[in-house]
Amino acid sequence: MDTFSLAGRRALVTGGSRGLGRAIAQGLVSAGAVTAIASRTATDVESAAWELNAACSDRGRAVPLALDVTRQTPHAIVDEVEAGVDGQLDIVVHAAGVQHRAAAEEFSDDEWSRVLSVNLTAPFRLSQEIGRRQLSSGGEGSHIFIGSIGSVLALPDVSAYTASKSGILGLVRSLSAEWSGRGVRVNGIGPGYFRTALTEAVFADADRSRRMVERIPMGRFGQPEELAGAAIFLASSASSYVTGQMLMVDGGWTST
User: Fold this and answer.
1) What is the rounded CA–CA span in Å between residue 22 and residue 64?
2) For the segment 73-127, what is each residue's pLDDT rounded down to a tens digit?
3) What is the mean pLDDT of residues 173-201?
4) What is the C-alpha separation between 17 and 164, in angstroms, rounded?
5) For residue 37, which of 73, 76, 75, 84 has the smallest C-alpha distance?
6) Residue 193 appears among annotated catalytic residues
7) Distances in whole angstroms, Cα of residue 170 to Cα of each of 114, 152, 232
8) List 15, 118, 131, 161, catalytic entry
């Protein structure tokens, strides 16, 4: 089981103060990583870090950082994160994301740009900076992008989200092809439906929720903590020969 340990490693989880990002951050901390939890709201990240440190005091450590991945330069972000975790990053998980629902013919330019900026452009630019430093130092790294069932399936009324998550799958493959031979692995996690702020509109519609559950072979929605194992696996030496993959954590949705 030592291959799953993240002791001595430094990680960054964007969007780590709530939802899926927080569950992933808790998994990394519990596996021993010093983990920077980044989000735009200082009170949110400070509260999340305090709770994670209280729960995992004998393992890793959570470091709260109030950052905006769309407004600050990647160089400045990585400098601040590395100062917070006392060294070069080994792991990054891109969990920050936004959503906007509208029919395709009514989708505004501003919302399209916002969703693509947060979900696709910002993760690429941040991994580009982290990867540049890892490659320059000759160190190993694990980059984990959060995709979606929308990375491989069509979803109605979320054209920008689907485009961004399809782009994430392409980015995972492209970066892996360029970097994995030099020690930096790149993978993705494709969550199915979990109850978070992004999916609240779906859960509020009882009829729609029922139809969706009927589509899932496991017959239920996911719990955020069920993503932690996938993140630990991809971040750790247990997945040392895994790269360029999108690991679907969706109760079997995309298998049918």
Assistant:
1) 12
2) 999 999 999 999 999 999 999 999 999 999 999 999 999 999 999 999 999 999 9
3) 92
4) 22
5) 84
6) no
7) 20, 11, 22
8) 161
